[in-house]
Amino acid sequence: MKILIIEDDGDASAYLARALREAGHNPDEAADGETGHEMARSADYDVLIVDRMLPRKDGLSVISELRAEGDETPVLILSALGQVDDRVKGLRSGGDDYLTKPYAFSELLARIEILARRRKPEETETLLTVGDLKLDRLSREVSRSGQKILLQPREFRLLEYLMRNAGKVVTRTMLLEEVWDYHFDPQTNVIDVHISRLRGKIDKDFGEPMLHTIRGAGYMLRAEALV
User: Fold this and answer.
1) Torsion over CA of 202, 22, 124 and 159, rounded to 10 degrees?
2) What pTM was computed for the model?
3) 3-state SS, residue 83
4) Measured in Å, how far apart are the chain's first and last C-alpha atoms?
């Protein structure tokens, strides 16, 4: 997705942009409301992430002006202002969703993906397929090349998340938050252990490996070999 981040905190904006790129998206950054408004008008973005308190033009003004101009790009308001009245004002200004700081990146990622689907509604997938690897969310069955693979509940959840993000780098932080619901580093090798077990089940007895470690970044599931 092409995403515009309108955030005046340079460190916060750079962190979010880096995390979005790791997740396979294409973020742009604007450090003030006026610049953000102009960038939003001049390019076709899938989602806007807008802070409320911005120099030159506040975030709610940016959103309301874009709406008045007929711009219906989905907007996630990201702000330290988290009272009920603050959220109501944000939504009434034209925001589609509101997330308060501090936030979990996995939640932000899920929210912007939901917002992006507003433009392209899709049926909920029950069967995930990557190459010859298949996962059925309803029957909880997994197979590769027609051969059934038995997974423990956590392994199934891990594989499902990797398949939903096939071809993208999935960071350790994303896995901790999404698969284990940890919003802190448990200082254990829990991810390494489960990745190793999962790799042994979906790759060991088959030809081309699909689960790859991306050194210094995380993991990637893909049908094609890494170059």
Assistant:
1) 20
2) 0.54
3) coil
4) 24
Cα maximum dimension of the chain: 60
Q: Domain 127-221 falls in which CATH fold?
A: Arc Repressor Mutant, subunit A (1.10.10)
Give 23's contacts (C-beta < 8 A, 6+ positions apart).
109, 165, 168, 169, 170, 171, 174
Query: Strands 133-136 and 211-214: what pairing?
Result: unpaired
| pLDDT, tens digit, 9 for 90 and up, residues 24-68 | 888 999 999 999 999 999 888 999 999 999 999 999 999 999 999
Residues in the chain: 227
> What's the Cα-to-Cα distance from 19 to each of 27, 112, 120, 171, rounded to whole Å?
10, 13, 24, 9
For the chain, what are the domain ranges? Answer: 2-116, 127-221
Given the candidates 3.90.1150.10, 2.40.50.140, 1.25.40.20, 3.40.50.2300, the CATH classification of the domain at 2-116 is 3.40.50.2300
